[in-house]
Design a protein that fits this description.
Elements lengths: L1 H20 L7 H21 L4 H22 L4 H8 L5 H12 L3 H46 L1
Helix pairs in contact: 1-2, 1-4, 2-3, 2-4, 3-4, 3-6, 5-6
Length: about 150
């Protein structure tokens, strides 16, 4: 249970922090933090049931994609404003670092293994975003229309 609480807190802080570093608008920081925190919790929970790298990253990316699109509509900001800071915690930076270290130390087989792992994580993130975009384009089109209709009535 504490892992979920810590995951939420640090997922939120890492997303907000990276949003600040990348100079995102202030009005998008809290929604981006919430999306990042929820995605990290999904990553943790899926990891409890599936000990691989693909499913936790795939499901985390789907959550970022769906919630990021929803926040983009509600906050009226580009979806990339939410994607970039939320994705930071899922990017396989440590795996790539270890692979490069192993490569420079002459441990080619360990380096190759790490590169394949990083490529696998990257592909699962990309596929997760594709799935989320496909679902979001179907679901959120009506929400966009309703919001636009309400704005036109004002």
């Amino acid at each position: 249970m504490m892992q979920i609480v810590y995951g939420f807190i640090f997922g939120f802080l890492s997303s907000v922090g990276f949003g600040i570093i990348t100079n995102n608008p202030r009005r998008t920081l809290i929604p981006a933090g919430l999306v990042g925190a929820i995605a990290w919790i999904v990553y943790i929970v899926v990891g409890w049931f599936n000990h691989g790298l693909i499913m936790p990253n795939l499901m985390g990316a789907v959550v970022i994609g769906l919630l990021g699109n929803l926040c983009a509509i509600l906050v009226k900001a580009p979806v990339n404003i939410f994607y970039v800071p939320c994705l930071v915690s899922l990017v396989p930076g440590a795996i790539l670092y270890d692979s490069m270290k192993n490569f420079t130390l002459g441990k080619d087989s360990l380096a190759a293994y790490g590169f394949v792992k990083a490529l696998t994580v990257g592909m699962s993130l990309a596929i997760g975003f594709i799935i989320a975009e496909t679902i979001a384009n179907k679901i959120y089109a009506k929400l966009k229309q309703r919001i636009n209709q309400k704005e036109n009535l004002k």
